[in-house]
Write a structure and sequence with these properties.
11 strands; 7 helices; Helix Hairpins; alpha+beta; 4-stranded mixed beta sheet; 3-stranded mixed beta sheet; 3 domains; HSP40/DNAj peptide-binding domain; 32% helix; elongated
């Protein structure tokens, strides 16, 4: 029986030709090959040699199933990238972002335009996973930017020419009655820039009726934020 085998662990590995870190499938494969070579009906084989192969196999089976089982440590996994949260305006134009590394160091990361959530950037030996933040006034959906813009209530009823402040500067758009009813305008090709596998995005303006003195205030706030981030 397997529990009565006397062969040493080292000798059993030498008979079957396996290393110290073997799997069950490797053990079975090595046994089949060794048994073929040692079979008494084959040249160079013999009953005693075949017995040694079987005994070695039983000894190593004990290692696989018993208390002295050899466990191969799992391969080291690369560390998960830490998050680098950036404003959509930085994704649009590029710029700098502050970040604290795992060892506590504060770094300022220079970023190219066109980054999306899920992209990675490397700082020294650290890899950072980009996460785009957003706000009710400005969101990122895929490659597209969505901005809430305030316009005169009359234009949402009648349509017409309207000037809207965007991160790309002031844009004058013609608001059709259909667009006014939908309260949505698309500016083609003015979203996040193409980068790598990412396509050029579009800029969507969600139109909201402005209160007195409020027109474009949200967009102007975004512009001030962008100017401050760019100058930093």
């Amino acid at each position: 029986m397997a529990s009565e085998t006397k062969i040493s662990l080292k000798a059993a590995r030498e008979v079957l030709g396996v290393g110290p870190l073997f799997s069950a499938s490797e053990l079975r494969r090595a046994f089949r090959e060794a048994a073929k070579r040692a079979h008494p009906d084959r040249a160079g084989g013999g009953a005693e040699r075949f017995r040694q192969v079987v005994e070695a196999y039983h000894r190593l089976q004990i290692v696989q199933t018993g208390s002295d089982r050899i466990i191969q440590p799992p391969a080291p996994r690369p560390p998960e990238p830490t998050e680098l949260r950036i404003d959509p305006l930085i994704a649009l134009r590029g710029g700098s972002a502050d970040h604290v590394l795992g060892d506590g160091r504060h770094v300022r990361v220079k970023l190219p335009p066109g980054l999306r959530s899920g992209d990675t950037v490397r700082v020294g030996v650290s890899e950072l996973a980009v996460v785009l933040t957003g706000s009710p006034e400005m969101l990122v959906r895929g490659d597209d930017l969505w901005i809430t813009a305030s316009v005169a209530p009359r234009l949402l009823t009648e349509g017409g020419r309207v000037a809207v402040e965007t991160p790309l500067g002031r844009r004058v758009v013609w608001l059709t009655k259909k667009a006014a009813e939908r309260k949505l305008v698309r500016l083609q090709g003015q979203g996040l820039p193409a980068r790598g596998r990412h396509r050029q995005g579009h800029l969507f303006l969600r139109l909201a009726p402005a209160k007195a003195g409020q027109a474009d205030s949200a967009a102007r706030t975004l512009l001030r934020r962008f100017a401050a981030a760019w100058a930093a």
